[in-house]
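User: Teach me something about this protein's shape.
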Amino acid sequence: MKIGILGSGQMGRGAAFDLARQDAVEQLLLADINLKCAESLAKETGSKAKAVKVDARNREQLEGFFGGVDAVISAVSYTVNVLHTEVAIETGTHMCDLGGGWTIVQKQIEMNNQARDAGITVVPDCGLAPGMVSVLARHGIEYLDRVESVKIRVGGLQQEPRPPLNYSLIFSVEGLINEYVEPCVALRDGKVVLEDPLVGFEEIYFPEPFGKLEAFNTSGGTSTLPYTYQGKVGNMDYKTIRYPGHGHKVWCLMKLGLMSSNPIDVEGKKVRPRKMLETLLEKNLPPAGKDVTLIRIMVEGWKGTESRNIEYEIIDYFDETTGLTSMMRTTSFPAAVTAMMMADGRISERGVLTPERCIPPELFMKELRSRGIDIKHRIF
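Assistant: First, the predicted structure itself:
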């Protein structure tokens, strides 16, 4: 099979690293608007890789790129996911992306019939959260006959926290602030509700050296899950894991207006506080260094007449051997697995389908475990 990767950044690099090691992948087409970046990644990836210059916003260039492969991973800004879905349909090419806001995904879902008629599968939201956690949640939900609650807790952290926020930019600053300011979609008593971010604080414990951490509401992690399971699951929410104290500091920044996109007057000049904050965070937060991804998903309900608790836990570290960060592994590897499953037919349903609707959980978990992502699963 031939697979294309749009974007030669961290997530594109992670996907390329993984796919180059799969026997079923014959060729990787690595695309970037900066040809030198794509060539550098191709050289690093090995003989299966070929670099091409593609502007991710240029429909004509995209059509040529999509038309030359069996499946595409879009590892660029979520703002072009709708365009890429349109091109996938036009060229008859399977595609997955790393997600974006709910409004973007909804526009993609509206093209479901066209994708089905074109005989292809498009999987939005195919990263870590949403993405991997969506499939794990499905696995737990489908095991039970009646589901009372689903709690999803995820955090990408430095192994050694450093001030001022005990955090570094594990992924894009734009995506980070979106999580802190946009509404959080949840299920309460079987109904979809919108809740505020940066509230709902709770303590959560992981094995040493982590110990006591905090978790609080952030947006985006559930994406389509509440809509998929509305009326089937009683309660569902998503919270981000951070080192203690981080959430309150960020809440203060938000309350001071520093996350607002509305321009304000500063000495006669219009300034967007959020843009200024993004710039300062990129400049002043410590380097990411060695990271760790913490995941815990708890599904509670009944199997027959007996109550059951299902737990999934992942503690994934920076890979010393390959130099891949944990965030690269846990975000790009799910997309790589999905691209292969679409291309080889293990994902057989056609249309625009979110991960919990089309990715077979057992096969997915098996593939991730074979890549060194240790998914602990227990029922009690």
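Now, about its shape. The radius of gyration is 20 Å. The first strand starts at residue 2 and ends at 6. If you'd like, I can walk through any region in more detail.
User: That's plenty for now, thanks!
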